[in-house]
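From the thread on structure requests for the teaching lab: each student submitted one protein with a one-line request. Submission from student K.M.:

"Model MspA family porin from Nocardia huaxiensis, tokens only."
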Amino acid sequence: MAVAAALTIGLAMNTGSSLAGIDSANSIVDRQGRTVEAIQMDTNFQFVAPLDGNPLTREWFHNGKACFKVSGPKADDWSGTITVGYQVGFPATLNGKLRFQWSTPSLGLELDGDPSVNIGDLIPRAGVEVEVGFGPGIETIEAASGDISGTDGFIQMSGFHGTVTGVLGQVSIRPWVKIVTSNGDTVITYGPLWQI
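Reply posted by the TA:
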């Protein structure tokens, strides 16, 4: 099974982000008494016919936002890490192995006001092959992560392209967002299940 992905990420810090399309949210109170919230919003998966024509391939595009919100004492001084990923469930594989691959073709950073940084054609690639047996099984994939600070912000994904090859049966995808504070406190929110 191979998972390949292409991802465009924009990390935006702004104060007043609307949370109208919330798909899932979870929160903790950290050691300093601040409420730290992980939020998924505007999640959309578009499943398409596999480009390789293989009946054992599943292919999709993912759009959405992975958000964080911090409130309470000294919220402006808060810092941590945000990670976006997937749980991929499968009933069976052909060879007992999973291969995950993804890349990020561009990255943009926007802070309040006019400052902006865009780096085009930045293509870090990552991949791993995991012995999972012939199934059924669930694998967790970390797709993107970055350092965050302040009271709120988000990573926006547009056109994250994924494929799973070598799967017998239906594939289930559950997106998640994880926030880890600088002290190691962790909160994860799991989004709705999508099936191909």
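TA comment: The chain has one domain: 2-195. Confidence is low (pLDDT under 50) at residues 1-19, 103-125.
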